[in-house]
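Propose amino acids for all 144 sites.
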């Protein structure tokens, strides 16, 4: 576990506005990514198209081996490097961070609860997530 006092989140969003978030009290690692993939696979089903930025944990040997061993469940595409404006998940994170901007959590546990609460609030507004996809200019079949 990291010695830093932090909460990191892995967020999966769908073009129709569903949000799935996993929160970790450490930096994102391959282990975290694989846990999140398993969780999303159980909640959404398969096959899944996973569109990622170029985070090291997304490209690690452990993660790529996991994806390869579950090729029937996952297809992976990468966003261009240095293109956060094309990533609707970045909009999602920015929205949650703005909501948390003035918070002063007293502990990592408080920060964890706050992150869960704010992502939970966003989850109740799928129209916002749909807007994040539109803002990114992404077009996915069946999504207006």
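Proposal:
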């Amino acid at each position: 576990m990291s010695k830093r006092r932090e909460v990191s989140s892995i967020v999966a969003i769908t073009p129709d506005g569903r949000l799935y978030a996993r929160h970790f009290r450490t930096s994102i690692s391959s282990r975290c990514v694989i846990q999140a993939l398993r969780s999303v696979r159980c909640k959404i089903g398969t096959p899944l198209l996973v569109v990622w930025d170029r985070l090291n944990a997304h490209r690690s040997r452990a993660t790529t081996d996991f994806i390869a061993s579950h090729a029937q469940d996952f297809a992976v595409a990468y966003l261009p490097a240095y293109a956060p404006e094309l990533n609707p998940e970045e909009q999602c994170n920015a929205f949650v961070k703005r909501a948390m901007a003035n918070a002063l959590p007293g502990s990592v546990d408080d920060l964890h609860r706050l992150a869960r609460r704010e992502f939970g609030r966003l989850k109740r507004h799928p129209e916002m997530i749909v807007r994040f996809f539109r803002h990114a200019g992404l077009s996915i079949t069946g999504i207006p």
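The chain has a mean pLDDT of 87. The helical segments are 30-44, 56-59, 61-69, 88-100, 108-123, 126-136.
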